[in-house]
């Protein structure tokens, strides 16, 4: 990933343009006290770099970069293009986006530009090029950071025109568009490219044409990538060896990050869990970020060291919490731990956002001391586990097209939420400390023993073959209700659900029943085996299944379909395909996943008490690193399965090892 062998990167966003040069010097002292080795800047300074159309000013940036280099600190050099100057918006108002209600936005936000605006793109690429030319040999330059948290949906005329071109490129003829979008429905048939309209709330709801809305989501991802690529190409041509990142704002629905990540050298993401998030949800997001580039380590580019300002209630992170979250990130594949922000602003909407250096301005704060402790530990660990990978035997399939389409769908239930389903299945593995890779539906699945594809509503071309090959080769596949319904354009596959997956699962789903929010049914287990109890609750949706070649393992306990199958298994080639036709309770998923993992000998790195997460990363030379994260609010004893070297104390440990509350440890396997 990086072009040199670096230690764990530690630092964060820094806004020197908000501070005097006297403060910069003090900041260098504080950064070194905290063992900070990487500073991201300048993320939002476009006007200071380009005060007017033909004037560029780099003097202040030269000085801060020189100061960083002098202090042995690297720069993650940002292109500053996430917020265009006010003079630019004023002179070129067409670059401001138009929202789904048809309103042109005004200057005053950030990421407030149309991704297809030729003027924005021209100026952004020009600035990126100037920065690259000027700093290509600067000793501080380590990584490039393009823009910040892309994700604007725009519906302006430029976008509408670009969308028409996109559609033409994809479908070639207007007849094909009519077919792919099934436009004879409600007399939506098109006779000319110019008749294509973009989704709009002017018609009360922007989802009347679901097939168009789905393609608009794809188009916005493509537009965002091509906007980003304008900067990427210019920078790459000048500094081919410096990796380029852009920060992904957590797990966002509106951009297909699998697609975007192909164009990013190192994935970077911003982790802002809400106080009520389960640790497994955070772990899942990390695993997804690792999955974006097929297992490559990534950068945790932002987290808050203490509190945020933008949640409804901004709880402080408790002592030990940011350390725990930092180690959890590395436990899932991060090779950088960074904060938003290093020094807190005195004004603006983020003035109450946490910072390593708070408004007090010195190091004698709880938060600074905790950050300094983490920094000291990471500098001790150095580069030992950097670039190490995972050897997961289980994977979960995740797909943005599927996410978009299943949630665009009018019916069968407004409560069907894709991420919620993924999260539930992930948690069942997480609670067993089974390492899970998050993969695309078309990923190579041959390294896995168990693949789970919850709610695989859309089956894109080739995906059925991929799953068939996985199962026939001996793999175990688990899927769930409302799967195999539509093709890549959201058109139903006729002939019986689950469409192209019917033979694989050996079932025919004739109908489904959407349950009311408070309504439950139950799964009555016919063959309990070693792992399952007699009965579990289920809800949300009940597929009415006819097993064909599959064997029924459980039946519904109520309603007119009582006694019909809700859980099946099909032998397909050398493997097994399980179909869970409803939304089961947690207890079922945990028992069921435990059973499947045991049968397939998919095991955790070590058995730990509840609340203690354990993961393992492997270096290329075969060394292994075991991470222990205690999510409990009390100290917890772990019985180590063998001898390890504690990388923080450098001592060999065995037997009982005590983790303090929210404690974390990295152990080298001996
Ligand atoms: C995002 C942005 C940062 C900052 C933080 C605040 O992640 O990238 O610039 O606004 O949120 O939490
Ligand atoms: Zn636009």
Describe the structure.
This protein has 670 residues and is an alpha/beta fold. Among the domains are: 394-599, Rossmann fold (3-Layer(aba) Sandwich), CATH 3.40.50; 612-669, Golgi alpha-mannosidase II (Immunoglobulin-like), CATH 2.60.40.1180. 30% of the residues lie in helices and 20% in strands. Strands 10, 11, 12, 13, 14, 15, 16, 17, 18, 19 and 20 form an 11-stranded mixed sheet that branches. Strands 5-4-3-2-1-9-8-7-6 form a 9-stranded parallel sheet, with helices on one face. Helix 1 (21-33) links the parallel strand 1 and strand 2. Helix 5 (118-135) packs parallel to helix 8, helix 8 (210-238) runs antiparallel to helix 13 (400-408) and helix 10 crosses helix 14 (418-430). The chain starts with 8 loop residues before the first strand and ends with a strand. Residues 148-149, 247, 249, 270, 272, 302, 308, 340, 350, 353 line the site of alpha-D-galactopyranose. Residues 97, 114, 116, 154, 156, 158-159 line the site of zinc ion.
In short:
Helix content is 30%, strand content 20%.
Features:
670 residues, alpha/beta, Rossmann fold, Immunoglobulin-like, 11-stranded mixed β-sheet, 27 strands, 30% helix, binds alpha-D-galactopyranose, binds zinc ion
